[in-house]
Design a protein that fits this description.
With 214 residues, the chain is mainly alpha-helical. The chain has a domain of 125 residues. Helices cover 52% and strands 4% of the residues. It has seven helices and four strands; from the N terminus they run H-H-H-H-H-H-H-E-E-E-E. Strand 3 and strand 4 form a beta hairpin. Helix 4 runs antiparallel to helix 5. The radius of gyration is 25 Å and the shape is extended. The N and C termini lie far apart (83 Å).
């Protein structure tokens, strides 16, 4: 039997998982400090709720970081298609950036694989193989079906989304929301001495989380 090395194709049996650029690694370093650092380290980060999270692309608003995020996910998709795809039905389509559902899911899948690779035992890697990757592949198949086999196709659900966001549809939903709120206020109102009712509304201190009622 002739191996790939003997045939002149010196290639390892498996390829390493892409690590991302400097700003991607910095983002993860800051998130690790926010989770595990001491008070001074965490304070130095500023508002940690605003830290970019690569698994949630909309949080990566800095242009250079955003550019590196797309480059990283492009490498991850290429890696997944090479290392984990044998049958064509499991291949991530080349037009994945034009599918928001795939962008969101690939970012999470990449983050979980990164964490599994950093673990000091194989538990997270087993979970990624057993649950995360197969679940992603199944959802991708169900959502994309065969629409983009010969190239990217337009969004089949666009007309329904357009109707959903239309002024008439939004107005109908708004009336339903207001009716529900009014019904809830009526059902949970506190009776007053004159027989009328007073809504029991709570106020919340957004800094302390303390809830007070009238």
């Amino acid at each position: 039997m002739t191996t790939s090395v003997e045939a002149g194709q010196a290639e390892p049996m498996t390829l390493p998982f892409p690590v991302g650029g400097n700003l991607i690694r910095l983002a993860y370093r800051e998130l690790a400090i926010a989770a595990n650092g001491d008070q001074n380290q965490v304070r130095a980060l500023g508002d940690i709720t605003q830290l970019p999270r690569p698994w949630d692309p909309p949080t990566c608003t800095q242009p250079e970081l955003r550019e590196q995020l797309w480059a990283w996910l492009e490498d991850v998709v290429r890696w997944l298609n090479h290392e984990y795809t044998w049958d064509i039905n499991g291949t991530i389509p080349a037009c994945w950036p034009q599918h928001p559902h795939l962008v969101h899911e690939i970012a999470v899948l990449a983050d979980q694989r990164r964490r599994a690779g950093l673990a000091l035992n194989s538990d997270l890697m087993e979970e990624w193989h057993r649950y995360a990757l197969p679940a992603f592949t199944e959802r991708m198949r169900n959502r994309t079906k065969d629409h983009c086999e010969e190239g990217h196709q337009g969004w089949p659900g666009k007309s329904r989304y357009t109707r959903h966001t239309s002024e008439r549809s939004a107005s109908d939903r708004g009336r339903a929301y207001r009716a529900d709120v009014q019904t809830t206020v009526t059902l949970h109102a506190a009776p007053l001495g004159d027989g009328s009712v007073q809504p029991r509304l709570a106020s919340v201190n957004l800094d302390t989380g303390e809830v007070s009622t009238p």
